[in-house]
UniProtKB/TrEMBL annotation:
CDD domains: AAT_like. Keywords: Aminotransferase, Pyridoxal phosphate, Transferase. Residues 32-392 form the Aminotransferase class I/classII large domain. Homodimer. It comes from Kangsaoukella pontilimi. This is Aminotransferase. PANTHER family: ASPARTATE AMINOTRANSFERASE. It holds the Pfam family Aminotran_1_2. Its cofactor is pyridoxal 5'-phosphate. It catalyses: L-aspartate + 2-oxoglutarate = oxaloacetate + L-glutamate.
Length: 400
């Protein structure tokens, strides 16, 4: 019998981290590699946030804090939910963790029993199904394909609900597609959920602030207040303020759930980094001009990448509503052969050959539950993106 837990047999390591690692290794060997795999803004954390962290260190704010966040940060989060989302969460119903990732994990560990089902629309963020499995639950995947704008329909949601369904995980704008649900599309889903009171909503609003003109961000408890007492609204500072390394995420939700999540955190990691918490206070309470600045840059890059990829033979790239990813289909490349004689049978073959032949690292679609596609993170400079698009175009033109 293996020394390792049987649960781990059901879980795979994060493929996005694997691609970033492989690209780094090739670069270390002297290869000219363009990494389009990493899901983080390429900007520096704004200066006033960095200064707040330095001041916190100098003021000795370097000790343990309350398990799920200092009162000052919870107050800033309460104000943020009111300001941006019309949601009134008392500070007692707010929890802070080491990244949105830990907050999501805490929620699943705190609620899932063996056999409990969690509905996950695909394409999905790579961690959702594996987190569900680690917590003992069963992911139920519902596919929103290219023709559906990478969104699921209310009929699909209705059909996926069973007496064992515990959660719907909702993510708009989405990683990996950038597709968003506008108010009407979201309401169509919440109408279904209102008819199934045993189903809770785990909404991951991480890309809230990277929403492009024509798309207005909405969160489930905002459009359907009746769902608020069975919704966990998760968010964080990583993508909104270029703070991925600081590891601060947070959520508002029903008191009982928040208490249970705090219990999980108290017996695992305890408080998120004290200095990072003070930095997050400055991010949420301070000037917000980083948000429109970064959104405008991402919008310009989105348009550059969508045009560049649609110019590649066999690639179809829809226009995303937000986030900093595109998720083109490569249906037109499947079955072709590279000049080196390698047959492209699926999107993993495509991504591997693209990396080997051109040095462009992307993440293959199977990792996100919908194929044949790949994901590009365009959180990098215009020059790099132009170079990458040219290489992808010539790679695709070389497929026969
Ligand atoms: C959809 C989504 N949710 C959650 C996270 C986790 O963010 P963090 O743990 O940095 O707050 C990410 C990060 O890539 C993400 O893309």
């Amino acid at each position: 019998m293996s020394f390792l837990s049987a649960t781990l047999d059901r879980v795979k390591p994060s493929p996005t981290i694997a691609v970033t690692t492989l690209a780094g290794e090739l670069r270390a060997q002297g290869r000219d590699v363009i990494g389009l795999g990493a899901g983080e803004p390429d900007f520096d954390t704004p200066e006033h946030i960095r200064e707040a962290a330095k001041a916190a260190i100098d003021a000795g704010k370097t000790r343990y804090t309350p398990v799920d966040g200092i009162p000052e940060l919870k107050a800033a989060i309460r104000d943020k939910f009111l300001r941006d989302n019309d949601l009134d969460y008392p500070v007692a119903d707010i929890t802070v963790g080491t990244g949105g990732k830990q907050v999501l994990y805490n929620a699943l560990v705190a609620t899932l029993n063996p056999g409990d089902e969690v509905i996950i629309p695909a394409p999905y963020w790579v961690s959702y199904p594996d987190m569900v499995k680690l917590a003992g639950g069963e992911p139920v995947i519902v596919e929103g394909g290219l023709d559906a704008g990478y969104r699921i329909t209310p009929e699909q949601l209705e059909a996926a609900i069973t007496p064992r369904t515990k959660w719907l995980i909702f993510n708009s704008p989405s990683n990996p597609t950038g597709a968003g649900y506008d108010e009407a599309a979201l309401r169509a889903l919440t109408d279904v959920l209102e008819r199934h009171p045993h189903v809770w909503v785990l909404t991951d609003d991480m890309y809230e602030h990277i929403a492009f003109p024509g798309f207005e961000f909405r969160t489930p408890a905002q459009v359907a207040p009746a769902l608020k007492d069975r919704t966990l609204t998760v968010n964080g500072v990583s993508k909104a303020y270029a703070m991925t390394g600081w590891r601060i995420g947070y959520a508002g939700g029903p008191s009982e759930l928040i208490k249970a999540m705090r219990k999980v955190q108290s017996q695992s990691t305890s408080n998120p980094c004290s200095v990072s918490q003070w930095a997050a206070v400055a991010a949420l309470n301070g000037p917000q001009d980083y948000i429109p600045m970064s959104r405008d840059v991402f919008l310009r890059r989105r348009d550059l990448v969508v045009a560049g990829l649609n110019a590649a033979e066999g690639v179809t790239c829809p226009v995303p509503d937000g986030a900093f990813y595109v998720y083109p289909s490569i249906a037109g490349c499947i079955g072709k052969t590279t000049p080196a004689g390698k047959k492209i049978e699926n999107d993993e073959d495509f991504a591997t050959a693209l990396l080997e032949d051109t040095g462009v690292a992307v993440v293959f679609g199977a990792a996100f539950g919908l194929s044949p596609n790949f994901r590009v993170s365009y959180a990098t400079s215009d020059e790099v993106l132009e170079d990458a698009c040219r290489r992808i175009q010539s790679f695709c033109a070389g497929l026969k």
